Amino acid sequence: MSCLSARTGRQRQRYEGNLRLVSGCIPYRWIKDSTDQTGETEEMIEVLMVSSPKRDDLVFPKGGWEDDETVTEAACREALEEAGVKGLLREVPLGIWEFRSKSNLDLCCTEGGCKGYMFAMEVTEELHTWPEQNNRSRQWLNIKQAFSLSRYEWMCSALEEFLRVIEEERKLEKQDEDSIGCPSSLVADVSESQTMAPPKCYKRSSTMPHHSMNSKKNILSCAS
């Protein structure tokens, strides 16, 4: 079992009017997919989803934003508790979505309303044990699979914005491909902190065996 424990209770929960404030993230990683005729290795992006307790669906890790933490700290904590991952979290949220809870077991408030802040997290570490592993399984999916398994409109919208942000990063990197380093305003290292049609997958080409937020120089492309 994990030596860490998940927070429980709603004593420190933040609210905005009748809406429970929620923070979460879309964890992602790059995996080697194939080698093309030029010898370049293609990498494909995958996102991580977790199962919902007592419900047959997959969601992105998220949970209540509490009054003793920042919204980004809450997102990192939820990723750790629900999915057992740590990583690099973007400080700017993908967006803010309002939605209603679909389960009486997970009511956001008496009216079931939530206001959720979602972020992108590049995963740098997967824990073998994590606080909620007895109640949640985790699954890496390509973008097409993630879209097909996202039951709620706000999740698809968050995925669309996630792809837009990744593509914008590609453009910025292309402009600065001869520079070293990444602007600190784009990414916060929090590894220690607790409408478009879905593409088939999302890839980039790479001749390098590894990558980091500081050394991505290769082109991202949507698979045909």
Topology order in helix (H) and strand (E) letters? EEEEEHEEEEHHEEE
**Low-pLDDT ranges:** 184-224
Oligomer: single chain
Q: Approximately how much helix is present in the residues?
A: 10-25%
Descriptive tags:
3 helices, single chain, 224 residues, twelve-stranded mixed β-sheet, alpha+beta, disordered C terminus, globular, 12 strands
SSE arrangement:
Layout: E1 15-16, E2 19-35, E3 41-52, E4 55-59, E5 62-64, H1 71-83, E6 85-89, E7 95-100, E8 113-126, E9 138-142, H2 143-149, H3 153-175, E10 188-189, E11 202-206, E12 220-222
Parallel strand pairs: 2-8
Antiparallel strand pairs: 1-2, 2-3, 2-5, 3-4, 3-9, 3-11, 6-8, 6-10, 7-8, 11-12
Please explain how this structure is put together.
The chain has helices at 71-83, 143-149, 153-175; strands spanning 15-16, 19-35, 41-52, 55-59, 62-64, 85-89, 95-100, 113-126, 138-142, 188-189, 202-206, 220-222. The protein has 224 residues and is an alpha+beta fold. Strands 1, 2, 3, 4, 5, 6, 7, 8, 9, 10, 11 and 12 form a twelve-stranded mixed sheet that branches. Mean pLDDT is 79; it is low at 184-224.
Write a brief caption for the model.
This protein has 224 residues and is α+β, with helices and mostly antiparallel strands.
